[in-house]
Amino acid sequence: MSHRPVIQFPDSKLRAVANPVRDFHSEAFQTLICDMVATMRKRRGIGLAATQIGVALQVAVIELKDGPLVMANPVVNKLSRQQEEDEEGCLSVVAVFGMVPRAAALHLRAQDAHGRWYEMNAKGLFARVIQHEYEHLQGKLFVDRCTRITAGAPRAHELGLAIPS
Ligand code: ZN
Q1: What digits encode the pLDDT tens for the residues 9-29?
Q2: Distance (Å) from CA 92 to ligand 1 centroid
Q3: What residues pack around ion ligand 1 (CB closer than 5 A)?
Q4: Using CA atoms, how far apart are residues 32 and 35, in angstroms rounded to an integer?
Q5: CA 49 to centroid of ligand 1, rounded, Å
Q6: Full-prediction pTM beyond 0.90?
């Protein structure tokens, strides 16, 4: 298990659209999952997508109260029409935080670290993190949706982000 460097915005690797995970049983994939969890914890994140460590595979890890949850080949649907706006940050956009509107609830279908399918309903912060990580796998970042910077405006400006504060 080792920590891996987290790629920083605006690196173009963060814009890669990830490929489906097909081989769950390889040592490389199991090591990837362990490294992602270790990296997320070390950085005190609540989620990390493989895209953020330069691996273009559809897998992310999430850890709130319980966990870690492995979300491979995720399918997100039943996004609620009701949206909630809350503050987000990202380990790939260090020291910048801002408000992001997201669907308040959703349904997730995904595979775990061993390729077993599971499904669940999520709401609130959990639904928010799922959407944030899911979008990493599509090459999207929270700053694409951010309506207002709440902290780190000078850094956001340095990064060329034209978001009001
Ligand atoms: Zn992120």
Answers
A1: 999 999 999 999 999 999 999
A2: 6
A3: 90
A4: 5
A5: 7
A6: yes
Q: How far is the CA of 78 from the centre of ligand 1 (A)?
A: 22
* CA 66 to centroid of ligand 1, rounded, Å: 19
Q: What are the distances in angstroms from CA 32 to CA 5, 23, 124?
A: 13, 12, 28
Total residue count of the chain as it appears in this document = 165
pLDDT digits over 119-128, tens only? 999 999 999 9
The 3-class secondary structure across the chain, one letter per residue, is CCCCCCCCCCCHHHHCCCECCCCCCCHHHHHHHHHHHHHHHHCCCCEEEHHHHCCCECEEEECCCCCCEEEEEEEEECCCCCEEEEEECCCCCCCCEEEEEEECEEEEEEECCCCCEEEEEEEHHHHHHHHHHHHHHCCCCHHHHCCEEEECHHHHHHCCCCCCC
Catalytic residue ranges: 133
What's the rounded Cα separation, in Å, for the pair 56 and 27?
Answer: 17
